[in-house]
Each structure stands twice: as C-alpha cells, then as structure tokens.
Write a structure and sequence with these properties.
By secondary structure, the chain is an all-alpha fold. It has seven helices and no strands. Protoporphyrin IX containing FE binds next to helix 1, helix 3, helix 5 and helix 7.
C-alpha cells in the first residue's frame, strides 16, 4: 500500500500588528500588577495600614512614589494599547472571526468534536478577559481622579468596594494568563503559541 506522508496543518498566521499589541498588553499588564501591589502595600486593601501585604520581590517601584510613577505612566500604554486593539478589531471585523461566537456556543452545548470544544473554550476565555481589563482601567480611573470622575466612583457603591473590585482584577488577570497559556497550547499546540509571538 502506498503510504502518503501526513501533511501537518498549516501554521496559523497572525497579523504582526496584533502580535505587537498582544506583547504590549502582556508587558504593560505585568508592570501594572507589580507597581499596583507596591501601591497596595502602602495601605493594604484588606485590613488597613497593618493589614495583609505582599513580599517586596513581587512589587515594582521600591516605595510608594516609585510604584505610583510606574503605575500611572504604564497606565497610558496599557489603556491606549487596548483602545487601539478595540478600534482595530472593529474596523477589520476581526472580532467576528476571532472572538467567541454563536458557533462556539453551539460547539460547547451540543458539539461532539473535543478539539472544537477546546478551541471554543479558548476563545471564550480570551474574549472574557477584555471586560475585566476594561473594568481594571475604569475602577483605576475612578480612584485616580475621584473629584473629576465622581460619577464613575459613585457607581462602585463606596471607596472600599471600589478598591476591592480594582484589586480583584489582579488575581483574575493572573489566573487568566495561566489558563489562557494552557488553553492556547491545548487548542493548537506550541505552533499556535509561537504564531502569536514569532515575528
Ligand atoms: C497577559 C495578558 C494576555 C492577554 C490580555 C491576552 C489576550 C489575548 C487576546 C485578546 C487574544 C486574541 C487576539 C486576536 O486574535 O485578535 C489572544 C490570542 C492569543 N494569545 Fe493571548 N493574551 C495574554 C497573554 C498570553 C500569553 C502569556 C500567551 C502564551 C504564552 C498567549 C497566547 C495566545 C495565543 C497563542 C493566541 C492566539 C489564539 C488563536 O489565534 O487562536 N497570550 N490573547
């Protein structure tokens, strides 16, 4: 019998522009988290001045003012990258092809193909992090300029709730990075992961 060599599936290709934005979001997210934890340590959200704090090695900035400088400078990179990505996926209609869709919902509800189901989970997870990152920006803005954005701060009930919600975006983002990395590998192997990082 004539055995044909198995053809491997085509390497997924991602636009360079998306790869750059994806990298910028990863780098700026980690700077935001490290500097945010530095600011947190000055007055812990849970338990006040003598409350529960983070070890120095997970923080960035050295002291409160250093943490604030990193946080408020990187905030621009983080927010502008997300804004540019949002405009890009709307203009190119990329969100229709790449984000969680009705077909994904069907695949998860009644689909029998395990590969397709994993891919749909993967898409659901990275689609779901976008509102969390937007919440991180808006809750941060509400604390950064509470006088100018009093209407925004008012939406969060009180200051402690606002701080808690802003803080919770940290563990959610960290958990997301872990699950998203694993799901990316499960959905498309290292080839898919490489496709998002290799120039
Ligand atoms: C740190 C925060 C991260 C965020 C917010 C994030 C978000 C996203 C988003 C929104 C997409 C869809 C992009 C598009 O196609 O337009 C995506 C795709 C992807 N991400 Fe991430 N990502 C992050 C970190 C990572 C990490 C650390 C890895 C792997 C080590 C990774 C691997 C991938 C892969 C492989 C895809 C391509 C998915 C596909 O085409 O099916 N991401 N990510």
């Amino acid at each position: 019998m004539n055995k044909q060599p198995r053809k491997s599936p085509p390497v997924p290709s991602q636009p360079n522009f998306v790869k750059i934005l994806h990298c910028l979001i990863i780098i700026s997210l980690f700077i935001m988290i490290g500097s945010g934890l530095q600011i947190y340590n000055a007055t812990p959200v849970f338990g006040g001045k003598s409350g529960w704090s983070f070890p120095q090695w997970v923080t960035l900035g050295g002291w409160l003012a250093g943490g604030r400088s990193w946080h408020f400078t990187t905030m621009w990179v983080f927010a502008l990258t997300l804004l540019i990505y949002g405009i890009y996926i709307l203009l190119t209609q990329r969100w229709k092809r790449k984000f969680f869709s009705e077909q994904d919902l069907k695949a998860l509800q009644v689909g029998k193909n395990p590969k397709r189901r994993i891919y749909s989970w993967h898409r659901l997870i990275y689609t779901g992090i976008i509102p969390v990152l937007i919440l991180a920006i808006f809750s941060g803005l509400a604390m950064y300029k509470p006088a100018q954005f009093h209407w925004l701060s008012g939406l969060f009930i009180n200051w402690q709730t606002l701080r808690t919600i802003h803080f919770l975006t940290v563990p959610i983002s960290l958990l997301f990075v872990l699950v998203h990395t694993i799901m990316g590998i499960r959905a498309g192997g290292l080839r898919l992961t490489r496709s998002m990082f290799q120039p």
